[in-house]
UniProtKB/TrEMBL annotation:
Alphabetic keyword roster: Ammonia transport, Membrane, Transmembrane, Transmembrane helix, Transport
Localization per Swiss-Prot or TrEMBL: Cell membrane; Membrane
A molecular function (GO) term: ammonium channel activity
Native organism: Arthrobacter jiangjiafuii
Name assigned to this protein: Ammonium transporter
Keyword Transmembrane: yes
Amino acid sequence: MDSGNTAWLLASSALVCLMIPGIAFFYGGMVGSRRILNMMLMCFGGASLVAVLWVLYGYSASFGNSLTGAGLLGDPLEFLGLSDLLVEDEASALPLALFAAFQLMFACVTTALVAGAAAGRMKFGAWMLFAGLWATLVYFPVAHWVFAFSSEDGSVTGGWIANQLGAIDFAGGTAVHLNAGVAALALALVLGRSKGWPHSHGKPHSRPLVLLGAGLLWVGWYGFNAGSALSAGHTAAVVFLNTAVAAAAGLLGWMLMDRLRLGTSSSLGAASGLISALVAITPACGAVSPLGALAIGLLAGLVCSLAIEWKYRLGYDDSLDVVGVHAVGGLLGTLLIGLFATEAAPNGVSGLFYGGGFELLGIQALAAGAVLVYSFVVTWVIAKVLALTIGLRIPEESELQGIDLAAHAESAYLNDEDPVELGARP
């Protein structure tokens, strides 16, 4: 085993873990002051539950040998409990336990992203049950499709998108962002709109927290993307560079669109442009040149800034724009690989603009379409079953009062009028 590669993946795993509090701060700042604790706990709680499921069967379902060789689901019993990963595999270039930990963070981040569509109106217990079911029935199978590669000797069969189809998704444009964004749409539709939406919809209570969360996500994303190279070498360096320049272009693109449409540039728009570009470059970071990364980042900032308005026209309450940023950004980045991919980049495949024709674009579209349909349908069924059994919505009075007190008996902020002393439980 290469100690340098191992050290890089250890650091990358920690960086991806940093994205969980990053999402919590980003989402937490975007909701009202009486919703922030619930929003942040949805992120931490859902991620923690997924970590437990990952040990029990999630890693096996994602990276185990494909059942019947169909490439749809890994054997959930192959690495049951992950005890087998305690034994060092001399044939592996990296400790398998470390690879499992790295991919665990992806599962946690993806689940936390979905929470943004349900801010302020979903029972916390219902969310936790939904998160576990969603990870089991949606994320783990899709991760197998996209991230599980077959072994060179044919002894292990991986997912159909990565192997049979041959689509490019370097770090999770389909499995993470498109998957989470489409799931957020399905959950929002079943959950229904917030009371008084959109006229009385709460504004972000702390834009500095939004920027803090976006900053943590920006730093963590280098582990997310460059860590997916699984080695500290040329590929990781190219991916790191592409991620950095795309993020900057996306921030500027969204701010420019805000300036043209609204006459001003906002901190919330800058943070959203940054995240949308990071989403879009995630699948493409190993396939494009730095110029291609700039183009993808800029397009993501421009397109996603318009896409967030769809919820008002179509009437769905996606509280924190998970659909407009992650679903649209993930789809955009996945498809643009078919245009901007260059054989000179680490993935070694050319898209339409580099003489590769339309074939790669078609492959990318098929991969994105499969994830989109599967995630939406299964998520809708999960949410609908829970709505008809245990119920998803908190009582109307609790929603109007603020979910923090109703669900957690806590307030994020105390003032002189509150009868509770600092540090005491209300």
